[in-house]
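Q: Given only this backbone (384 positions), what sequence would you predict?
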């Protein structure tokens, strides 16, 4: 019920945006102009929050996490199974709505009291399970927490691969479509944050997006159109919180294109990462001017990029607590540091004009070994 409610809201917003942008249906445009509050964003959020508040589901979930009896906090309506279910799945619905609106941190905040594991209530409903992991993973990706995004996507994709023989039902087509979207998002995240994937996910990813994935991993300007295509293919149908302007169509912004432009700024900042990594892996110490010569860019520009890229390699990784919580870790297997070295042009002159300052890049690589035990156990279960 909650899923269909949000689907209708999303479809109406997409239709209203289409009418406002194309301006080819004057009758519908006039009706929408005269009724700006139809399917209003505030009204939809109010319904979901009201169900959560009336059922007191947050208090019940908090009590369950503390090991207390949730019935003591349920209140008049929370003890009724219908209100309990409506309140619980309204939390999942809020995750989806906030993600569609582009408020990704608030989307993750709504699931603070829900544990993402197979024992949770949403895991009993297959559509809710896929939807939850998809929107949580996408929110992580848009917040540049690629490690957590990959973890969410791979978890549910492995589950799909193991249960695909039991999914021959009415939802099979939607599950297959959603899994293709998640594979595209995994390709994007791994291209931006190189990570060793599970063999099952990696094989399926190579099969579905092998050529595109390889080109994205190479980086450079040639990879930008592929990132754009995969993002458009895999992103949710974003909506705007306010009605469009039917009188001035030129001021209306397509929400998908808006979020795409924000995401592509991050991609452009990282598009030279694979090339730089390929050079740095060959050296333990390297002069920054030498690397700038290889890349055919200015040393000062390269120095700034290296500093920014080093900072970007530190991400918040979720360990426990709420989905927004986590520890700052270095996700890159290639670490480097820059050291300023001064040398004299003339041995007899110690003035600053005679000093030549150079930056040396010290490179250290932490190789991640393959988890052979996991691979052996996984293939053993297939054999027997």
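A: Predicted residues:
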């Amino acid at each position: 019920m909650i899923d269909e409610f949000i689907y209708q809201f999303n479809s109406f917003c997409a239709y209203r945006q289409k009418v406002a942008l194309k301006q080819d249906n004057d009758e519908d445009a006039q009706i929408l102009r005269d009724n700006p509050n139809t399917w209003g964003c505030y009204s939809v959020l109010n319904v979901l929050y009201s169900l959560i508040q009336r059922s007191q589901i947050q208090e019940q979930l908090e009590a369950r996490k503390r090991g207390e009896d949730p019935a003591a906090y349920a209140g008049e309506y929370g003890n009724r199974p219908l209100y309990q279910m409506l309140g619980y799945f309204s939390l999942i619905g809020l995750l989806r709505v906030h993600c569609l609106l582009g408020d990704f941190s608030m989307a993750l905040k709504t699931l603070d009291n829900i544990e993402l594991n197979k024992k949770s209530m949403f895991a009993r409903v297959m559509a809710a399970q896929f939807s939850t992991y998809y929107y949580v993973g996408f929110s992580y990706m848009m917040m540049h927490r690629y490690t957590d995004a990959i973890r969410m996507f791979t978890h549910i994709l492995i589950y799909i691969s193991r249960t695909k023989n039991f999914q021959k039902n009415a939802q099979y087509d939607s599950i297959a479509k959603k899994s293709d979207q998640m594979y595209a998002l995994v390709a994007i995240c791994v291209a931006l944050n190189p990570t060793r994937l599970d063999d099952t996910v990696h094989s399926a990813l190579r099969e579905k997006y092998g050529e595109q994935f390889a080109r994205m991993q190479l980086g450079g300007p040639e990879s930008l159109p592929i990132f754009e295509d995969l993002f458009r293919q895999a992103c949710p149908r974003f909506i705007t919180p306010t009605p469009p302007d039917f009188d001035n169509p030129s001021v209306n912004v397509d929400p998908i294109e808006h979020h795409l432009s924000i995401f592509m700024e991050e991609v452009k900042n990282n598009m030279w990462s694979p090339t730089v990594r390929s050079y740095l892996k060959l050296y333990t110490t390297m002069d920054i001017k030498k690397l700038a010569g290889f890349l055919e860019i200015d040393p000062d520009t390269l120095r700034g990029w290296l500093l920014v890229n080093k900072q970007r390699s530190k991400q918040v990784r979720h360990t426990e607590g709420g989905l927004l919580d986590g520890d700052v870790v270095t996700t890159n297997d290639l670490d480097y540091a820059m050291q300023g070295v001064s040398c004299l042009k003339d041995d007899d002159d110690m003035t600053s004009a005679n000093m030549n300052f150079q930056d040396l890049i010290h490179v250290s690589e932490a190789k991640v070994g393959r988890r052979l035990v996991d691979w052996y156990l996984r293939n053993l279960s297939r054999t027997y």
